[in-house]
Amino acid sequence: MSDQPSKPRRRYLRIAAGAVIIGAVAVAFVMRSPSPVGHWNSADDQDRFLTAYDRAFQDLPAPAETLDIRTDYGVVRVYRFDGTGTSTHPLFLLPGRSSATPVWADNLPGLLTIGDVYTVDLLGEPGRSIQERPISGDDDQAAWLDQTLTALPISKVHLVGLSIGGWTAANLALHDDSRIATLTLIDPVQVFADIPWSTAIRALPAAVPWLPKSWRDSFNSYTAGGAEVENVPIADMIEAGMHAYSLKLPQPTRITEDRLAALDVPVLAVIAGRSVMHDAQEAVDTAERALPNGTVQLYPDASHAVSGEYPDRLRDDIAELVDDNNDR
């Protein structure tokens, strides 16, 4: 299997795709509205984001079904895509911060050869999910996702999470893994290593919505290994979400090694060697040491935008995990 990145079919595929986690200081500085739930800063801001969302969504295959699922915390947008593969359980994809479902545009064609695929817009993030009640901690984060899976006509899923979606997937597995056949964590944040202070500090100006768009573009390019972000559909959507939406989510708790050791499902951990979201070697070492049933893959030349840089290799690694565990 080659370590060379797949030749990009669309320029936006090299973007970090919303996998942005800002430090607690940035969150405290920016999110100073009295609302207890995530919200759009204005109607015009919402319209701008949804226009960018719809543009980026055009590069996805047509969904077979669009679902709005009621949970205790709000309404969760889920899309189902018909696959051509024979996997017993569907894949369920969790995106990174501010990216929503369109982040998977380059990955879906390959993943659909494994089986049916569901995607979700994370609750409390910019997207078409609507947060209605506060999400106050890790238990709440697990609860809304579990309620979403429970509402679907499926028994289990192969859960796949990118960046903060990786943390969200691991968090659910630690609370209740009864609906999880396998767990794939793609360069997850706050799972195997801490976010560097240099990245958190650099995120500060990007977290301020009234500062120029160029500042947010600069940070998104930084997380994507210096990739071009101007006039790129997914990058435009990410920047619009960062500008338009005020998050009201708790900081994700760093998952400790003893908790990782309690994971009782097969785990694929994909670590980007050039990620700015953690020290890659530390993340690899932690994953190899702590996961009781884990496969750790280091993509040495990948940035945090690994899902767009290496869609074919990622598809093959996920397919192997699914094939090995189709009877779970």
From TrEMBL:
This is Alpha/beta hydrolase. One of its GO terms (molecular function) is hydrolase activity. The lineage of its organism: Bacteria, Bacillati, Actinomycetota, Actinomycetes, Mycobacteriales. The chain crosses the membrane at residues 12-31. Keywords: Hydrolase, Membrane, Transmembrane, Transmembrane helix. Coiled coil: none annotated. InterPro entries: AB_hydrolase_1, AB_hydrolase_fold, AB_hydrolase_sf. Pfam families: Abhydrolase_1. Residues 90-218 form the AB hydrolase-1 domain. SUPFAM superfamilies: alpha/beta-Hydrolases. Gene3D superfamilies: alpha/beta hydrolase (3.40.50.1820). PANTHER family: MONOACYLGLYCEROL LIPASE, MONOACYLGLYCEROL LIPASE ABHD6.
